[in-house]
Amino acid sequence: MAQIKNKILFPNVNRNPEDEFPKQRVPEYLISEVEKLIQLHGDLELFVDWNTGASVTASQLIEDAYKIASQFKRRACHPGDVISCLIHSDVNYFSFLLATWMSGCVLSSLQHSFSQELLIKLIRSSHSRLLLCDVESAERCRAIKTECPELEEVFVLGHFAGCTPFDRLLDDEAFPRDELKRSEPYDPDETLSMVFSSGTTGEPKGVLLTQQNIYSYLLTARPKANRPGMRTLFVPRIGNVMGLVFGLRDVLIYSKTYLMSIYKDEWLFDAIEQIKPERALLYLPHILAITKHPKSETSNLSSIEAVFTAGMSISKNLQRKLCLKLPSLKTFFMFYGMTEFAIGTMRPFHDYEENDYRLEELRKNHKLKPDSVGHLCPMNLMKVVDENTGEILGPNQKGELCFKGPSLFKGYWNNPEATAVIVKDGWIHTGDIGYYDDDGDVFYVQRSKELIKYLGHHVIPSQLEAILKSHPAVEDAAVVGIKSEDYGELPMAYAMKKPGHDKLDARRLVNFLHDRVHDESLLRGGLVFIDEIPRNVMGKIVRQQLRDRAELEFQKASSLC
């Protein structure tokens, strides 16, 4: 049972970071753990590219990391230097990551969805010295180099004119380990990585992660037991914070992890049938594919016993659909957090190796509420505050979710002002509206910035979106607020029709919604059909893009109310 003291929520299991975290640098700890696993279980494959068949064994991971770190030393890379990365998923990523950390450098994980302008801006502002890319992004990166004088070299996973092949980093023998060992004492606040916020409400910001942050992720998410050779399908790209967490976690449990360097929905089913993974890391778009794609009717998905997801709250209805598609599913792990505080809550809170229940039995036996995002993770604290007054609220009162703990990021890169807005007195203000109940279950309701405020009423877009998507002719929907001098904000909807339903008109769909909502939730800003709802790689709606479009279209749109 969770503890509540002075309206602060404490975890079921409270542990002290000082007692839990190793007193050595993260790369040294990871290498020593892998060497122990090799001694116990032999040299197994750690990462396999399902698309190409390329693989990396445990000993190769370590050997390659030392070779790459030696090349960084030859290029006079110093602690604090930034090395950037723009790739999807590749078996060599974690060797490159370890080498960067061994050198005391900071790995900046960029995203393919960033515009060329933004990439140039981020590489310039971080003073990146080296850049690793894949063939897909090589032409962009070669052009970026001409715009960024401090960027000395671009490495490519493969071959592309004007870029150095990644294999060159592995050509020469590594320096002796003693020569690569750093002399400075261990510092838990040393920056290891820079990942980027999702950018759903504006331009992405560089989120700095420290040794302490990485340890908090690894030791929170690590099961008690190793299962050498257990097969894991790792579908998302590896450059974001959850990719980092789960990739390193799989190293520590000695899993055989299959990556998909190229992803298509139909290939997901082929991969599952061929690999027969016991576990799968999936984001919302992949879960939707499993529940909706025609191949789900004919594919054998029975090997999957555990699913891990993060980034979005998965509805009770979607969980049920997933359970029906995966007949052997025993555990559905959902992590709630944000890039700046990666693991705030987790459900279910136990080791899946010890669990032998189906989803409904799991909820019954572990007293999980279907709409909950779980319980607090060890070492975290949580409070709920009133957005307007800052008053700390008690159980079952909705307000902004705030967290404190070792997962808290160091700050935004070169942006102390933005850091001060989100972190106050050691508490991170998530911008999420939610609450906790008397049992300590945490519930996410809505992003605060997504809330539409009409005449003082709070209109929740996700509720309107769910109603619109329940119409048999609607594939997807998004609701945003349009600024109004008189009313505050007016709800406006974008909807995507299902194939074969071209005759659906906006007025009929608006009436469908209006029959099911209160007056303050009426679409006073109108409804517009759109070819596709913009979503980021995590499946989140890019609302800022829709808000910008809505402001331009509002004057043209006729009122439908």
TrEMBL record:
The AMP-dependent synthetase/ligase domain, residue ranges: 41-413
Pfam families for this protein: AMP-binding (PF00501), AMP-binding_C (PF13193)
InterPro entries per record: AMP-bd_C (IPR025110), AMP-bd_C_sf (IPR045851), AMP-binding_CS (IPR020845), AMP-dep_synth/lig_dom (IPR000873)
Major location (coarse): other
SUPFAM superfamilies: Acetyl-CoA synthetase-like
Location relative to the cell: Peroxisome
Gene3D superfamilies membership: 3.30.300.30, 3.40.50.980, Luciferase, Domain 3 (2.30.38.10)
Residue span, AMP-binding enzyme C-terminal domain: 464-540
Alphabetized UniProt keyword annotations: Ligase, Peroxisome
GO CC field: peroxisome
GO MF annotation terms: CoA-ligase activity
PANTHER family, alphabetized: AMP-BINDING DOMAIN-CONTAINING PROTEIN-RELATED, LONG-CHAIN-FATTY-ACID--COA LIGASE
Family: Belongs to the ATP-dependent AMP-binding enzyme family.
Protein name per its UniProtKB record: Uncharacterized protein
Organism in which the protein naturally occurs: Daphnia sinensis
